[in-house]
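Posting here for the record, re: nicotinamide-adenine-dinucleotide.
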Amino acid sequence: MVHSMKISIVGGGYVGLVTGSCFAKLGHDVTIIDVDPVKVQSINNGQPPIYENGLEDLLKQNTGLRLRASTGYDSVAKAEIVFICVGTPPQPDGSANLSYIESASTSIGTGLKINPHYCVVVVKSTVPPGTTEKCVQPAVLRAAQKTEREIGFAMNPEFLREGRAVEDFLHPDRIVIGSNDPRAGKHVADVYRNIQAPVICTGLIAAEMIKYTSNAFLAAKISFSNEIGNICKHLGIDVYEVMKGVGLDQRIGPQFLNAGAGFGGSCFPKDVSALISLAEKIGDDPILLKSVIAINERQPYRMITLLLDKIGTLSGKRIAVLGLAFKDNTDDIRDSRSIPVIQELLDQSAHVAVYDPMAMPNMRRIFPALEYCACAADALREADGCLVMTEWPEFTRLDHEFDGMKKRIIIEGRRILSCKDRDGICW
Ligand code: NAD
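Prediction output follows.
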């Protein structure tokens, strides 16, 4: 049975747009609010402003029916539930910038002033523990001139992975609902009624901490694997064989043990840094978390070291970089490991030819003067070396394309190739 609620989603980026489209698919009535008129127009035209598997179909099926976008907050006046999905980017000291959360909270409160129903404001953005209670709640109540009896508050962290976001949203491992008020918590659980997954109910700050802890643990698994991989490389051991044997231990698990060029994206680097900053503010010295970041910062430069070992100097050399997105199946380049690699290649006066199936328009904004190629073969033609930075499935089939290089000098930052002459960063 379709159970429909009126939902407003504030922030139509990777999380907000996927959340809104999936809730519409589940039969809810959804309005996405974003300050960016270009995004709003694109959503209303049924065209996702980002690349994400399955999203275009969802927009085509639901836009104009159960899904719409707007730059205004009018829909909040009729909403039963409002999700905050705005960005929480890092500040120079690593802490989370909460200015978008603050401004969204005030706008939501203003919209709720004339809402005659009980409504719950749910923070889905990743925020430091205490933010929902100390920042969002007072700002909303103040602007709405209402009390906690009229507006409930909850924190519902999002665990989707870009590239598999729709699938992850509809089939999550768990749904975490944090609230200090059982009525608000139940209201949020209702909206997820059609999704089969364990629901974990916690207090507000525990829910906020669950998200940071999950990301910090996953990032730690990757940095740990990279450290072991670096040791294995020196010893001539295949780290993937090692991790296969290690991951079958049920206490460890096989996922996130893939050694390589390190983690990127909009979440792991910023969330681990925010947790470090939070710990330091309360007088702790989070040495493990700092090492997770330090290993990750160093890892991409190992690609360059390996390349230099093989070709001596980079000056005047043509280097093909395959893969710009921080992972496969996305156009997102935020904190992608290819960025420091390309910067270093340029600093050492290399000519950089790049190819990525989705992320080239985004990378052009950072590095406008690279040679952007239409396919991998074009980037590889006459190249002195090749660095593979993203695990795009289409790269797994590459082989004869490398024959176009001056010599097959191929360094993999992700273990995906199956051709001969490849050399892995830590295998
Ligand atoms: P994003 O930058 O893609 O999207 C944020 C959107 O919010 C933008 O479109 C922006 O225009 C809009 N916005 C900013 N201020 C606004 C306001 N006052 N009113 C309306 N719209 C406003 O960010 P994202 O990747 O979707 O991440 C959002 C949050 O979710 C972050 O806290 C992030 O850490 C968290 N998160 C992200 C992912 C991910 O994979 N991207 C996964 C889980 C959680």
